[in-house]
Write a structure and sequence with these properties.
CATH superfamily of one domain: Amidase signature (AS) domain
Radius of gyration: 23 Å
Helix content: 25-40%
CATH class of one domain: Alpha Beta
Largest sheet: 11 strands, mixed
CATH architecture of one domain: Alpha-Beta Complex
Strand order of the largest sheet: 1-3-2-6-8-7-14-15-13-9-10
Strand content: 5-15%
Shape: globular
Number of helices: 19
CATH topology of one domain: Amidase signature (AS) enzymes
Distance between the termini: 23 Å
Number of strands: 15
Length: about 575
């Protein structure tokens, strides 16, 4: 049964709503924020049951165009009824009481399957909930759906045929609500979106108001990128601030869940709900950062936070093309439309009283020492970086995926359809005719060839270099030298360098730029402009300060524009 037919059946089976009985105006969930939803619930203008039905109605109306959903919860209405009764009795669990949210389909739920988008796990109900799922439920959230994603968080197929963002064997292709059409270009016209959705998490449903907010996961850009592409606020937290227990991994070295929302306030509320009050015994990294008082980030929503704040502009590579000393070819830089938008963003920061340190170049980016320059040090990826062809890249993802994915399979016990990454690869090969590996599985291949004993020394060295170039001789060094509160990155451009040492970033919507693809989109297609945001990045556990800065910037600019759905 299609998602639309399933949702319509749920709605048809639901008893008449209180709003209909009392002829109250129908509440409009479109673009509604979490505080607005809570105010309406508190005032009795809407019930949690009605919110679920209203969001389901939007899913039924637009899902066939957007393909944002892998699974809709069969229990959401029953959960809403329980929460409505609790509210009527004077009990409110937390800031998300009765609010529908969605989870990426690599996060364990026990009332819906967790597939990771992989055919091998289609329909699998894990034997335990993710820690973050329980935290959300304890805060009163209703998990209404699981979102599409890039299969196994985009660690399936790299070169020679990379998997498109938000494609999976189970979910198909997710479409961007700001231009929900397939790519018409020859060689790219396989069903993928003409406007990138970001990846591997999805922000499609939040942008389209299918629910109030959603949770993604990031290893290197997969919260920040979809937030950027869907005009959302995203918080990529310090690795360990939110438990990864019950999340299908790539590598525990860099994996972290994070919220995507329409506003910074909503993201702050979600972050507090996702974080545990005490370290999770299943995830040692949760000892890294202490939660704020009452796990509440709302006290950091300060309108004047930019006044006197020192914001660094990493010009080299991230803003302007940069030629590494000793080389001849420039690298990186923004196109003219992106550059103009960032110039405008910097002007807004100055207007709000920020001290702009420009340039504040990152040492590991501008150094002439090629062994210590992060631009010469990528993550090994795809068939081109198979064993004996991976001397000049980090094997962290390859090694970490085999180590942590096999450990995750073990945690499933008898629920696991197989026991090792090797068996997953065999399954995909055996089921290629059913679409199990439309783009191949070169990422899985280069992970499975790792020997967790023999390759340990190489992994340790690569991991240490990743941390050093991203942190102590990267972001941390320039921030300390220039006494910065944050670095400002264009869009999700700083995601990769921040991810290596596990540093946090908050992205805020700011504008739209032309959809300039290569090769070009055919004349007459009328491609719509792409959302583009600005990111505030810092060192470990600096989320409170970043939220302050992001909130002040958001309130000064208020540039989010909802998609015009048809």
């Amino acid at each position: 049964m299609s998602i639309k037919r399933f949702v319509l059946a749920l709605v048809a089976a639901a008893p008449i709503t209180i709003a209909a009985q009392q002829s109250r105006p129908v509440f409009d969930v479109t673009e509604a924020t979490i505080p607005q939803l809570q105010a309406a619930l508190t005032a009795g203008r809407v019930t949690s049951r009605e919110l679920v039905l209203l969001y389901l109605a939007r899913i039924a109306t637009y899902e066939h165009t957007l393909n944002a959903v892998i699974t809709v919860s069969k229990t959401a209405l029953a959960e809403a009824d329980v929460l409505d009764r609790e509210r009527a009795a004077g009990r409110v669990r937390g800031p998300l009481h009765g609010i529908p949210v969605a989870l990426k389909d690599n996060i364990h739920t026990m009332n819906m399957p967790t597939s990771g988008g992989a055919l091998a796990f289609k329909g699998m109900i894990p034997p335990y909930e993710a820690t973050l799922t329980k935290n959300l439920e304890d805060a009163g959230a209703i998990i209404i759906a699981k979102t599409v994603l890039t299969e196994l968080a985009n660690w399936v197929a790299g070169s020679p045929t990379p998997m498109p963002g938000n494609y999976s064997a189970v979910g198909g292709y997710g479409m961007n609500p700001y231009d929900p059409r397939p790519d018409p270009r020859a060689g790219f016209n396989d069903g993928r979106a003409v406007m990138g959705t970001g990846g591997s998490s999805s922000g499609i449903g939040t942008a389209a108001s299918f629910w109030a907010a959603n949770v993604g996961t990031e290893t290197s850009g997969s919260v920040l990128s979809p937030a950027n592409q869907n005009m959302l606020v995203g918080i990529k937290p310090t690795v360990g601030r939110i438990s990864r227990w019950g999340v299908i991994p790539i590598t525990a070295d860099q994996d972290t869940p994070g919220p995507m929302t329409k506003t910074v306030e909503d993201a702050a509320i979600m972050l507090g709900a996702l974080e545990s009050a005490a370290p999770d015994p299943h995830d040692p990294a949760t000892r890294v950062c202490r939660p704020p008082a009452n796990r509440d980030y709302r006290p950091y929503l300060k309108r004047d936070a930019l006044k006197g704040a020192r914001i660094g502009i990493p010009r080299a590579f991230y803003f302007d093309p940069f030629t590494i000393p000793g080389t001849t070819a420039p690298r990186g830089g923004l196109n003219p439309a992106q550059s103009a938008l960032m110039t405008e963003a910097i002007a807004e920061l100055k207007k709000e009283g920020a001290v702009i340190v420009d340039p504040a170049d990152i040492p590991s980016v501008v150094t002439a020492d090629t062994l210590k320059n992060i631009l010469f040090w990528n993550t090994c990826s795809g068939a081109d970086n198979r064993k004996n062809h991976n001397a000049n890249c980090s094997i962290d993802f390859n090694y970490g995926m085999k180590r942590d994915f096999n450990a995750w399979l073990t945690s499933l016990g008898s629920t696991a359809p197989f026991k090792t990454l090797t068996e997953l690869r065999w399954f995909n090969i055996a089921n290629a005719g059913r679409g199990a590996m439309k783009y191949g599985q070169s990422q899985l291949d280069i992970s499975d060839e790792m020997d967790l004993v023999a390759d340990k020394a190489r992994y340790d060295a690569d991991r240490a270099k990743d941390i050093d170039l991203g942190g102590p001789h990267g972001i941390a060094q320039v921030m300390q030298t220039e006494r910065l509160d944050a670095l400002l990155f264009p869009g999700a451009g700083g995601a990769a360098i921040s991810a290596k040492p596990g540093y946090p970033t908050v992205i805020v919507p700011f504008g739209r730029v032309p959809n300039a693809l290569t090769p070009a989109i055919p004349a007459g297609f009328n491609a719509q402009p792409v959302p583009f945001g600005v990111s505030f990045a810092g060192i470990e556990c600096s989320e409170p300060r970043l939220i302050e800065l992001a909130y002040a910037f958001e309130q000064a600019t208020k540039r989010r524009v909802p998609p015009a759905l048809k």
